[in-house]
Amino acid sequence: MNILAIETSCDETACAVVQDGRRVLSSVIFSQIADHRLYGGVVPEIASRAHCEQIVPIASRAIEQAGLTLPELDAVAVTYAPGLIGALLVGVSFAKGLCIALDKPLIPVHHIRGHIAACYLAHPSLEPPFLCLVVSGGHSHILEVRGYTEFVVVGKTRDDAAGEAFDKAARVLGLPYPGGVEMDKLAANAATGKYCLPNPKVEGCPFDLSFSGLKTAVVNLAHNAAQKGQKLDKPALAADFSARVADMLSSRLFAAAAQLGYKSVACAGGVSANSQLRARLERDAGAAGVSLYLPPLDLCVDNAAMIGAQAYYEYGAGSVGDLALNAVASLGVDGVG
What we know:
This protein has 337 residues and is of the alpha/beta class. 45% of the residues lie in helices and 19% in strands. The two termini are 31 Å apart.
């Protein structure tokens, strides 16, 4: 089954053709980073306009690189939630138009489910059930993946997502957007242990996360140093911040795996590209005797291949959209709220 997948939830216009949920025939991404860097973050209106400009040529290129023609596509999949509403609407509207023109099924895909499916593309042997940590600019979840379309939230952030915290801390340190990547680069050659940062916990919910206080601690350190005329060791602070985030995420993931009895865990989403987090996950997986599945860096970022992978399983479960399909800015991975 050849599925054309469309992803426009934030600031990447992406299209891909995926065969039978596991084989990527093509994957094309247009990044808007240069457009948003001037503003220090994603500007929704600019993102929406860029998607409108790029969606047709990006889709055409994906189909051409797959070596297929439009009639040879079996279905069209699209990210419909969650994300920037204007950006999502571009993809959903384009997908619906294609399905009308081609008389093909429309498959709606949840963005977080897509990130999880990126692991299927990287690891053909991976099958549910397993435990997955999804960490990105807008999401931080620990999920039981009980089936390809069955998910249970074990833990999640109560405030900022991990990627959001990285971006905000990076801005305080004067780093350009996207902050997470720049923080990783800055921390690469610095030792940890110079700055004592908090380890926030949610009472009564051992697998939940909170990054707001950690972000505020970085803000306070920077402001105090400025007020006292002291030089802030930015590489060391970036390293300590990254190490604390990695500790918070990995410790909860493997504590949940131990309690729930999972011997296979995965990590996906943009923050899964962070070098300290990947190293910490690998170390903790080895110590726990648990199999760890990480996507390659090109599948960590938002892309359409992961949407096409998940779409195959959504279609198999009977999830097909119609012309009433709408974009949804905020929606749980289980389709509720």
